[in-house]
Amino acid sequence: MRSISSGSAGSYRFTLLAGAAAFAVALPSAAFAQDNSVLADSDDADELTLEDEGSSNVIIVTASKREQTLQETPISVSVTSGETLEQAQIRDVLDLQTVAPSLRVSQLQTSSASTFIIRGFGNGDNNFGIEPSVGVFIDGVFRSRSASALNDLANVQRIEVLNGPQSTLFGKNASAGVISVVTRPPQFEFGGSVEAVYGNFNQVFLKGDITGPINDVIAFSVDGSYQNRDGFGEIINLNEEINDRNRYTVRGQLLIEPTPDLSVRLIGDYSEIDEVCCQTSNLIVGPSTADAITAVGGQFPSDFFSFDNFLNVAPVNENENYGISAQIDWSSGPISVTSITAYRELRNFFNQDIDFTSADLSVETRDQAVDTFTQELRIASDFDGPINFLLGAYYFDESIEQNSSLTIGEDFRDFAAFSAASGAAFAAQPLLIGSQIPGITAAQQIAAGEAALQAAEAGAGFPIGSILGGDLLSSELFALDNESYSIFGTVDFEPFDGFVITAGFNYTDDQKDFIINTVAPDPLANVNVVDAFITAATMGAVTSRDAFLTLPAAQQQGLAAAALDPATNPFLGLSALQFQTGFLDVPNVVEPGETNDDEFTYLFRAAYQVSNEVNVYASYATGFKASSVNLSRDSRPTPADFTPGPGPSAARGSTFLAPSSPITDAGIATPNLSTGSRFAAPEEAEVYEIGLKAQWEGVGINLALFDQTIENFQSFVFTGLGFTLLNAGQQSVRGFELDTTINPVDGLVLTFAATHLDPVFDSFPNSVLGDLSGARPGGIPSWSIATSATYTHEWASGTRLINRIDYNHESNTDINNGLPTFNFARGGTEIFRREVNLVNASVTLALNNGLEVGAFARNLLDDEYILTVFDGVAQGGTVSGYPNAPRTYGGVVRFKF
């Protein structure tokens, strides 16, 4: 089924599969029940502890920073075991969403640009200045950007997804939730595993680990993985593949336990990605694509799910991610102390044809570096009395640098000439709509446009051929230094057995200093067409706002009227060719280039053990995420700092005619300066939640009902060549999360998980799409369902045959609230929608000697849907997007020893 509808639509497949969902129910948070040997791990564990055979539905988690069973943990948390990851062939966090319905993960334009979303809240990671709303921690170490958390999941013991703000448990605030990846520590018994996978698209996946003692107090482990796969798509004109896999990761650990009360865990890891990504196609081909691209000899894709591409250069995606960490655990009676120190480096580079056609128009390059140091210190008690506590401190220091650019390709001037000849113009966006003029050839139309360009260059005093004839549209340098610290903790009071009252707090102080230096080399980009007319009309006497203001009022009014009239100002038409105009660098005398935030957040919770089988809880929590900085070429002064004058568009307003504002009065306004955002203010979250956790013989149920709100949610929207970062006044969501586990007979485990979300923009009057107040935020399905059925047949010899099928569904929903150009021009109509129906299956024969042989299929029914959509770059009326991955399948051989 293809899900590309632009209106309301149902899904017959959902109807067909709903019956299967009712039977074969599954949630990764329930997937722990698939094995009678459930792993119990803690931060200071020196070995893996196996639960008793009779406790098949018990799992120990550390979501609350203490060892508790999932039933006892009064937090909405889903858990995916390492065994489930193996059986479902989940290799990285991108696939984790198929078993965690409250989590959504989407890959965008590069291998390293992904977004994590929990309960409908999350921020795009296509801008390194944006701090994520969903925090990712691997072995207690915060990964500040998703690009540093995408390595293959090797030697994972479990993954905990904590829903809602978690500021009292994690020093680095996460306003929407946390993904906590827990890997296996070194063991004092020799063991390990090796795994090899071969699948379609020539997929090769190799994974292995080995662990054992060095002496009586030191144990080691080494693990790694390698993944290589052909691309799903093909760049037809270059005869190259796209959307391939080529990555590896290695990691070494030491566990040092000189005394029973002291444990030191040292981890060093390195991972690398070198891939050609990502598959892009067109949903709607606009006139500038159909006519102008063809006119300059370019080709473009038209079948969204064909996996055909036409590019003038193959994309480059290179990512290096490495670091070290040291965790020290010390206990003395009822008091334990944990220290986690980490240093990480991320190097990310990509080069991409952003017009997604074979015409040589423009290529974007980004070279990014992120260096991060973190230090966490926790003290926890385990008293026999009614009061226990956790107290922590956290320090975070990070530096980010980015060099980026947009090129001017060899076909760009002809492309612009073709569009200029057709009389095309645009309002606020750098997008041309150029159609073929009837009665002439494309070559004749380009020649006519070229003559018009040369006439404009002569009139403006530019060298002939200089407009869109250079090398670069823009060149940028971004830098960000972020330093923050926090103090956090919780106190548990148990006045009587089974009833616990918890109070928690977090105080965070966060400071960011940033630099934005930009250059727009094209000569036309540095000329305001209104001001240029006034200068020419006054024979060069007026070259500045101050000089204009010295003129008599009547003359000012006459010049302004003539400059804004297309009948008298021939320069106005040139504004259509100002793709990337000039910027104002930061810091400057008005904008200091810094943010300073501090916030006190808190938690109140009451939990009661109704019986040995049933726990209930109710909580109120607040959360916080500090300001994010718009490190993109659309970073512009706020309206409070600058008011542009009138012009052919708000993006190209006159400086001479601009009213008084701090930037204008300081005399630092650059030509064509417009308003936007430099940074988004902090997010402040609050959530009311009540929950039930119950476990009976063969049946487990977890239920959470919540009402969650984020004030000043940081909305991030692609606007053509850059990104707009704005605060929504308030976004909220009500809903519930349910997961169940049923063991009807020996060997059979059925699980069902569902998340229902009812989100709304309570207030968002200033979005780039207009006033969205009262609207439902796009991209958030009403229903997300994850189900599975696992049947294990075990022979007397100990050999097992494990059969698993799982189903993941997202209900039909708008992908977004529209596009700044395509939908805005249509009054918000023709919103694209998506629906997800994924079926995965696997079968494994596990022999009693440790050898396992199996087969798997992901997206078994080859479901097709849109990941996301965006305005075609420099192609008015075109809508492009990313399709999901097709069906993959293969065989696996694994040996554990």
How would you describe what is shown here?
By secondary structure, the chain is mainly β. It has one domain (2-407, 477-518, 594-636, 676-896): Beta Barrel (Maltoporin, Chain A), CATH 2.40.170. The chain is built from nine helices and 42 strands. It has a 22-stranded antiparallel β-barrel. The model is unreliable at 5-57 and 424-432 (pLDDT under 50). Residues 70-178 form the TonB-dependent receptor plug domain. Pfam families: Plug, TonB_dep_Rec_b-barrel. Residues 1-33 form the signal peptide.
The number of helical runs is 9
- Kindly name the structural category: mainly beta
Mean of the pLDDT scores?
86
Major sheet summary line:
22 strands, antiparallel, barrel
Region (Disordered): 630-656
Subcellular location: Cell outer membrane
Family: Belongs to the TonB-dependent receptor family.
InterPro entries: Beta-barrel_TonB, Plug_dom, TonB-dep_rcpt-like
In short:
This protein is mainly β. Helix content is 9%, strand content 46%. It has a 22-stranded antiparallel barrel.
SSE map:
Layout (H helix, E strand, L loop, with lengths): L1 E2 L8 H12 L15 E2 L8 E2 L9 E2 L6 E2 L7 E5 H6 L15 E5 L6 E5 L15 E5 L2 E3 L12 E8 L13 E7 L7 E9 L3 E11 L4 E12 L3 E3 L4 E3 L2 E15 L2 E14 L5 E4 L2 H9 L12 E2 L6 E17 L2 E19 L9 E19 L5 E21 L4 H10 L20 H19 L11 E25 L2 E21 L9 H9 L7 H5 L3 H11 L30 E16 L4 E12 L2 E2 L32 H4 L13 E2 L2 E14 L2 E20 L4 E20 L5 E16 L19 E12 L5 E15 L18 E14 L4 E8 L5 E8 L7 E5 L4 E9 L1
Parallel strand pairs: 1-40, 9-12, 16-21
Antiparallel strand pairs: 2-3, 4-5, 6-11, 7-8, 9-10, 11-12, 13-14, 13-42, 14-15, 15-18, 16-17, 18-19, 19-22, 20-41, 22-23, 23-24, 24-25, 25-26, 26-27, 27-28, 28-29, 29-32, 30-31, 32-33, 33-34, 34-35, 35-36, 36-37, 37-38, 38-39, 39-42, 40-41
